[in-house]
Amino acid sequence: MSDNKCPMHHTAGGGMTNRDWWPKQLRLDILRQHSTRSNPMGGDFNYVEEFKSLDLDAVKKDLHALMTDSQDWWPADYGHYGGLFIRMAWHSAGTYRTGDGRGGGGTGNQRFAPLNSWPDNINLDKARRLLWPVKQKYGRRISWADLMILAGNVALESMGFKTFGFAGGRQDIWEPEKDIYWGTEDTWLGDKRYSGERDLENPLAAVQMGLIYVNPEGPNGNPDPVASGRDVRETFARMAMNDYETVALVAGGHTFGKAHGAGDPALVGPEPEAAGLAEMGLGWRSSFGSGMGGDTIGGGPEGAWKPNPTQWDMGYLKVLFKYEWELVKSPAGAQQWLAKDEDVEDLVGDAHDPSMKHRPMMTTADLSLRFDPVYEKISRHFLENPDEFADAFARAWFKLTHRDMGPRSRYLGHEVPKEDLIWQDPLPAVDHELIDDKDIANLKGRILKSGLSVSELVSTAWASASTFRGSDMRGGANGARIRLAPQKDWKVNQPEQLAKVLKTLEGIQSEFNSAQTGGRKVSLADLIVLAGCAGVEKAAKDAGYDVTVPFIPGRMDASQEQTDIDAFVVLEPAADGFRNYQKTKYSVSAEELLVDKAQLLTLTPPEMTVLVGGMRVLNTNIGGTKHGVFTNRPETLT
User: Fold this and answer.
1) Which residues fall within 8 angstroms of residue 433, CB to CB, at 6 or more apart?
2) How far are the Cα atoms of 49, 110, 421 from residue 412, in angstroms, in the given order?
3) Would you give the DSSP letter of residue 558?
4) Which of 10, 34, 64, 91 is catalytic?
5) 3-state DSSP assignment of residue 261
6) How far is CA 1 from its chain centroid?
7) Buried b vs exposed e over 478-497: b needs ≥16 C-beta within 10 Å?
8) CA-CA distance, 367 to 204, in Å (whole number)?
9) What dihedral do alpha carbons 118, 307, 246, 217 form, nearest 10°?
10) Could you report the per-residue pLDDT of 191-230, keeping only the tens digit for each?
11) CA of 189: how far to CAs of 119, 220, 238, 342, in Å?
């Protein structure tokens, strides 16, 4: 054998994969992600306890120092890294979408493909590398996910802005996520996600592959501010933001930092995932000039929005409305707008050369805040009411960076705001003594004597609990929101049957609670789940098995006022294979929808399998259909 030939022609994992041969093969690997074998922290790692031991103020002090500690290998714009870290935090959190609750900053997924190499995340590898000394110092006590968001908060505070608060509790993943659908495009900035006139595919929110939000140059690069406004509105709405919040976020965020389009993008090297091993996780090495500082290429547009990019003020909105704007091309060839007849006082100092001044710039997306009639009204209102603008941005930023964390009970740290916010799906605090084992047995007996069938008990408990999404920790049985709008009217919840079951359970609840003398009570949320447990136990007993389904009380009942109907609409199941339900015919197969549902419920393949089988024999198919009910003894756990 020739010395220059490798003795192993192919290495492990090479060659055609099963997925290559059978692209439509059902993917169960999304139910087996993030095992302890890929987690360097080990199976016993408790991040909550680690974070509780963290000196958060010390971390913030170090981050404050980092903001102005400019490094030669990646110099800070205007001597301050604030704009870079705001962008990093924003882009970490900004992938969240309401359609399936996936994305967002809750797992530190910006460290992995594909997000670490998206065109819109260009040079954020440098931001994370700048954070490394801080991460190294505090180690496992603060996750990358928490640190990236905290760095954004500290960046804002270091430039004179008062934030709404910060909560820790985001636990890192240690491998790329396989379950998130980012689109079918096979080229960066592709937009096959649109059909018809401009109908964006669900559950996607960004307008093009590899973007976080919208194309700053306008739809597909068309510099039309009004058309851009339509894209901005749809994208931000799919990311849980209304018009008021959208204007606050864009205007507040673009108060800081600058865009980087100093030269020809063709001179920028490959992204981190395509770069060589010697780059050690970095990418986008540029051969334009020094490749950094004033020569940085980070997209298309070039320049800052206002005279002082490192200070919180009203400059962005003032400049937006003060000038008329002319369309030009940046040095990178991108469409952007420069102020006409600008005053000397509004010239922007160069980020790296104090002898130079520049005209303020706006992107087409920025100008939508002036030329979209709804955004324009809100923008002018903020311009005239600076304190309200600051409060609106603080709240919108907090929502942006925390909306995928679930209920407030998961928040950690002394900077957690005390105010309940409607988008957190608030719940009342437990204000009574919880039921004990004796009460549980008593209530089960009453439930089983109520005349409700096993199917009715299990179906209602499933309907209540199965809205849960592990992606953003929304939904689920806590709150008993199945009795409230909109869930009580969903077709999948069989409203007539649901009303019957709820009326019966409410009667049992009222009777039990009124008989107590020591402050002990049962919530309807707990009773619905307990009824499902009782139903499963009866079905098992009828099959000759004596089982006890574990039950832990402590759920509370939410009010309609604590429930944002519009926000809960997205939790309505388009399909639920466990109940043999599909709202309409989709291009995606029923079995793929089943696995997707199972992944959101955080189920493993064995758990999914046993639940499907159990739900079938317990006769829980929507409408009582017999598809898949392979038993002549329904409601018996055989």
Assistant:
1) 518, 519, 520, 521
2) 10, 22, 16
3) P
4) 91
5) strand
6) 54
7) bbbbbbbebbeebebbbeeb
8) 24
9) -50
10) 999 999 999 999 999 999 999 999 999 999 999 999 999 9
11) 8, 9, 19, 34
Cα–Cα distance, 421 to 563 (Å, whole number)? 10
Secondary structure of residue 550 in the 3-state scheme: coil
Question: To which residue do tokens 């409408």 refer?
Answer: 623
For residues 513 and 473, what is the distance between their CA atoms, to the nearest angstrom? 30
For the ranges 502-506, 582-586, 590-594, the lowest mean pLDDT is seen at: 582-586
Within 10 angstroms of residue 234's Cβ, the number of other Cβ atoms is: 16
Q: pTM above the 0.90 mark?
A: yes
Residue 376 structure tokens: 């324009």
- Work out the burial of residue 41: count CB atoms within 10 Å of its CB; fewer than 13 is exposed, 13-18 middle, 19 or more buried: middle
- Calpha distance 392→386 (Å, rounded): 10
Cα→Cα distances 397→110, 253, 462, Å:
18, 9, 35
Task: State yes or no: is 10 an active-site residue.
Answer: no
Which residues face 358 on adjacent strands? 348
pLDDT digits over 381-395, tens only? 999 999 999 999 999
- Give me the sign of the Cα torsion angle 399, 404, 406, 408: negative
Report which residue type is found at 601: L
Question: Is the torsion defined by CA of 252, 255, 256, 262 positive or negative?
Answer: positive
pLDDT reading at 2 higher than 70: no
Which residues is 200 bridged to in the sheet? 194
Q: Tens digits of per-residue pLDDT, 331-352?
A: 999 999 999 988 889 999 999 9
> What is the arithmetic mean of pLDDT over 136-157?
99
**Would you state the structure tokens that stand for residue 361, as one six-digit string?**
């710039």
- In tens, the pLDDT along 451-489 reads 999 999 999 999 999 999 999 999 999 999 999 999 999
